[in-house]
């Protein structure tokens, strides 16, 4: 390529970049490296701009659970939980949710594979619905196996008695605290809904094993108000179930 041709191409590219920024007051020019997904301006209807799977995926989460349509559980995928590990944990407002990351944590086992708890976070109301109805709050406990596959356990909260663990978390946002993830769980963890879905935020990766505990925990009305000062609408709308089925144990 001649030096002149190279120079002209460079000038053309520079002009194109300049023009792409013109008239961008209403919609600032941002590429995938600078724009950030959220629940407002760059909300769920725009998440395909950050990951095509959010638009094109056919096994997306969350979904609406209709208990009467659930099928019997494949017991080779029964959930065994071993979360009773007390550890220092970092508690942050990451711009999307309140996220808790323990230094050391427990694990779950399903289908002969161990998944370690890597973090849990909260949504101001549940993302999954039961018969079209939301729960007051939800925690998503994210677990990862050595091969990188994911399993998420959802713990629903209804307004009731004050929750000691939530109080610790709310009081230490931006800091650290001693946390035992088992305190997040209801007494009965043997009954749940199970299906294969996706992450509920970009990149919306699929083949995630979802377990939604049927028994719920409580959060006081005061705690819920305090929590929702951080987030109240950080949930993705429910997605089509398509050809999937929900298992029930």
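^ structure tokens above, recovered residues below v
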């Amino acid at each position: 390529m001649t030096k002149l041709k190279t120079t002209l191409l460079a000038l053309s590219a520079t002009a194109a970049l300049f023009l792409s920024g013109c008239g961008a007051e209403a919609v600032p020019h941002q590429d995938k490296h600078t724009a950030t997904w959220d629940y407002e301006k760059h909300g769920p209807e725009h998440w395909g701009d950050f990951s095509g799977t959010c638009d094109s995926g056919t096994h997306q989460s969350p979904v609406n659970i209709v208990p009467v349509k659930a099928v019997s559980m494949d017991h080779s995928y029964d959930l065994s939980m071993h979360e009773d590990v007390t550890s220092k944990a970092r508690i942050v407002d990451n711009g999307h949710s309140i996220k808790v990351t323990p230094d050391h944590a427990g694990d779950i086992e399903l289908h002969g594979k161990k998944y370690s708890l890597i973090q849990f976070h909260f949504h101001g109301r549940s993302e999954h619905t039961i018969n079209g109805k939301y729960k007051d709050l939800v925690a998503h406990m994210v677990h990862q196996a050595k091969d990188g596959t994911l399993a998420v356990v959802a713990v629903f909260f209804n307004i009731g008695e004050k929750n000691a663990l939530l109080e610790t978390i709310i009081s230490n946002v931006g800091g650290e605290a001693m946390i035992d993830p088992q305190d997040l769980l209801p007494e009965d963890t043997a009954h749940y809904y199970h299906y294969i879905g996706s992450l509920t935020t970009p990149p919306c990766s699929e083949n995630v094993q979802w377990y939604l505990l049927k028994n719920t925990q409580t959060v006081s009305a005061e705690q819920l108000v305090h929590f929702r000062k951080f987030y109240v609408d950080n949930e993705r709308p429910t997605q089509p179930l398509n050809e999937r089925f929900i298992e029930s144990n």
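The longest strand covers residues 113-123.
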